[in-house]
TrEMBL record:
Domain Deacetylase sirtuin-type intervals: 22-339
Protein name, UniProt field: Deacetylase sirtuin-type domain-containing protein
GO molecular function: histone deacetylase activity, NAD-dependent; NAD+ binding
Compartment(s) of residence: Mitochondrion
UniProt KW Transferase keyword: yes
Originating organism: Kwoniella bestiolae CBS 10118
Source taxonomy: Eukaryota, Fungi, Dikarya, Basidiomycota, Agaricomycotina
Amino acid sequence: MVRISIPTLPKAPLLPPSGLSILPLPQAASYLAQFLENGKGNTVMLTGAGVSVDSGIRAYRGEKGTYSNPNYKPILYHELVEDSDRGDMFSKADVVHSDWARSFLGYPPVRDAQPNPTHIYIAALQHLGLAPKLITQNVDNLHRKASSLLSPTYDKSSILELHGTLAKVHCLKHRHEQTRDVYQDEISRMNPIWDQEAKEAERTGRRPRTNPDGDVELHGVDYRSFSVPPCRVCEREKVKSSMVKPNVVFFGETITPAVRDESLHLISSSSSLLILGTSLATYSAFRLVKLAVEHKKPVLMITTGPTRADPFMGKRLDKMDRVAGDVLGKYLDEAVKTSTGKEVEDVKRYLHTGVVKRPPEVEGPRAEG
């Protein structure tokens, strides 16, 4: 029997706020400036769900590090897919129907979300060459939207999506890939009653609670009427059709070797690591911080609440327990004042433009998740 749980933070004693956490904002921004200057344009950024809260996407954890919805049962990879003796991948029909129904309803809020100021600030750091490479745990595509605002021709390889993206889907057997919007439209055509309900929920603002992975939790729903389209690429190529899955890493699934190796290479070849808006509960992200510390690279973490990396504080890792966007915005305001050039003008044009639309259930400080 496979037992998989949602990643949680290891129990650790609460640490008193560091000196960096209580610095006035101008001094905190100055500290970030010095950190980036020492990085000499080779700082890698690592982001998590916290940076997307102001775009209306809930973080998994609140400001105290606890899971925000402890009764929620996410989509688990081993429930969705099994490996048969013949080596064929097949799905359990009831699980597939329920998971795709939940994903069908949860995708539109993520698809429609717009970059908030923090996304713009992070894109600005990349555009200005201050921290050109970004590793994100987020699957919401908002970092790419922000980068395309500053530069429609931005280097797409500069953003590594550690856990994939909701913007695409693929079939499991042949890895045929297509855009999520195309597949979403096909689901809508095959499920007119569900589509009508989804549109009514959007019109009235009664959308179900959406998690950062685009999944929602539904109760008392009969999923048997929900139809899941097969892979049309398989059909066109006249090969055995396969189940289609969002291009995201499900709970219980491992990241691909290519993504793992690229993330480790980015850390190994960097001069420093800037961590923004994450508790680092997932091991795929935590091991990157662990690697940076082991390689004696300076690490600065700007996030709220406890994190998995807190025991590294004082071992080449510094932490500001505060909202990352506030520090980034203040730093960039000063950085572009006396600078010139096309990239600077691009940043000035969009610097404080992002859209702030907080999730309705989120109260209090902007949890960094």
